[in-house]
Amino acid sequence: QVQLVESGGGLVQAGGSLRLSCAASGRTFSRYAMGWFRQAPGKERDFVAAISGNGGTTYYADSVKGRFTISRDNAKNLVYLQMNSLKPEDTAVYCCAGGLFPPLRVAVRSWEYDYWGQGTQVTVSS
Q1: Backbone angles phi, psi at 16, to 5 degrees
Q2: In terms of Cα–Cα distance, which of 82, 107, 105, 119 is closest to 31?
Q3: How far is 95 from 36, CA to CA, in rounded Å?
Q4: Quick count: other Cβ atoms within 10 Å of Cβ 16?
Q5: Phi and psi for 68 in degrees, rounded to 5?
Q6: Full DSSP string of the chain
Q7: What are the C-alpha distances in Å from 46 to residues 28, 58, 94, 123?
Q8: CB 14 within 8 A of CB 124
Q9: pLDDT tens digits, the chain, 126 residues: what are they?
Q10: Does residue 54 contact residue 29 with C-beta atoms inside 8 Å?
Q11: End-to-end CA distance of the chain
Q12: Are the C-beta atoms of residues 98 and 113 closer than 8 Å to each other?
C-alpha cells in the first residue's frame, strides 16, 4: 500500500512558477512509476507528466512540454513537478499517482495507476 500526499499548490500570476511535491509512503518507492494529472472544474482529468521508477524516462503532455519538468528523489520518496511560465489554462487540481511498472516504463492513462493523492489546487491569474 502506498499513500501519496501532494503539496506546493497555490495562487500565482501568469508567467510565474510553482513547484509541486508528492510525498510517498513505503520502502519500495523506486519500483513505482509516478505521474501527475490535473482536473479543472467541469473537465475530465488530464495527463500532465510521468516519470519511470528509476527516473530514466519522462514523458509530458504537449500542453506542458518545455514549461513543466517532472523529477524524483528516490532516497526521499519524493516526486516533483516544476511548473514554469504558468498560464491561466493551467489552473486545476493537480494529483500525483503511482503504479508498479518495469523500471523504465511510464504510463499516461489514469487507469494504469493504482494509488492517488488527494490533490493540490493550482490557480493561475491573468
Answers
A1: -85, -175
A2: 105
A3: 6
A4: 14
A5: -110, 150
A6: ---EEEE--EEEETT--EEEEEEE-SS-GGGEEEEEEEE-TTS--EEEEEE-TTS--EEE-TTTTTTEEEEEETTTTEEEEEE-S--GGG-EEEEEEEEE--TT----SGGG--EE---EEEEEE-
A7: 27, 16, 10, 16
A8: yes
A9: 889 999 999 999 999 999 999 999 987 999 999 999 999 999 999 999 999 999 999 999 999 999 999 999 999 999 999 999 999 999 999 999 999 988 889 999 999 999 999 999 999 999
A10: no
A11: 40
A12: yes
List the grid coordinates of 124: 493561475
Cell matching residue 18:
510553482
